[in-house]
Specification:
Largest sheet: none
Structural class: mainly alpha
Strand content: under 5%
Number of strands: 0
Amino acid sequence: MCDDPSACLPQEAEKTGKTIELANRLVGGLASENVRWAESVENFKQRETTLPGDVLLTTAFISYVGCFTKSYRTDLMDDHWMPTLKVGKLAVGKKN
């Protein structure tokens, strides 16, 4: 603490300046996070539309065709299951 208020002013001004600088850095960092979060939300919304179809296809595949040959599984998926899901308007995510 200073006895003379005018002598403390430069120290207080410097301290306040540093606080403002830190606050601006924090706000800037949070602004960039906002952009990333907005992109994530859009991605989750898109994936939310395909989630029921993806779960149905995955569970059916594991339950019913895991033991068959690859060519039979591919034929079953591409020629039978996927067209049936499209007719039923059940969205499915893209193959990886």
